[in-house]
Amino acid sequence: MDFDLLLIQKMKRGNENAFDLFVRKHYKEILKYCSYHCLDASYAEDLTQETFLHFFEKLSDYRYIGKTRNYLYTIAGNLCRDYYRKTKESLLEEYPKNMQSSLHPSEAENSLNKIAIEAALNHLPEELREVIVLYYFQELKLAEIADVLQIGLPLVKYRIRQAKMQLERLLREE
């Protein structure tokens, strides 16, 4: 029997330890996913916690079909999209120049590289950004991405190829 299924059964019966184990099992992956969707680390943590809250709120209706992680990614993805709709601040405002100059040269360079990559990712259409984050940052297999996004495998491959081309173009412009 699957470990997630056991945890979900115990959570539905109110077992506090099962909730804790479930969060510990999936928290790191969901936080990593949210971190790649927003620059603010504390907001990424908030989105991660909100993901679990949404999951737990609907737990009584949740039917286990062996894809709990995919369901958590879907919730997190929706929350991240809401975050983008609400915030239209520029990336440069989040990293003022005086803050960058106070960093060591390698730290400043790493921050600038991260900003450039984040900016390029943010300029991609949502469906292309999503496959890139899942493939490169979450390290999901193509079939898993197709499953999470509920699209066909050929479309996943196409979107990754398109995203790579657009990212390359955007990063050259930077």
Quick summary:
This protein is an all-alpha fold.
H/E series: HHHHHHHHHH
Largest sheet, strands/sense/barrel: none
Please tell me how large the radius of gyration is: 18 Å
**Structure class:** mainly alpha
Mean pLDDT, to the nearest integer, reads 81
Number of helices: 10
Number of strands: 0
Overall 3D shape: globular
* Ends distance: 50 Å
Kindly estimate the percentage of residues that lie in beta strands according to DSSP. under 5%
Q: Point out poorly predicted stretches.
A: 88-105
Q: What share of residues is helical?
A: over 70%
Describe the structure in your own words.
There is one protein chain. By secondary structure, this protein is an all-alpha fold. 78% of the residues lie in helices and 0% in strands. It contains ten helices and no strands. Helix 3 packs across helix 4 and helix 4 packs across helix 9. The longest helix has 21 residues, at 153-173.
Question: Any descriptors?
Answer:
mainly alpha; 174 residues
Topology (SSEs and partners):
Elements: H1 3-12, H2 16-35, H3 41-57, H4 68-86, H5 91-94, H6 97-102, H7 105-123, H8 126-137, H9 142-149, H10 153-173
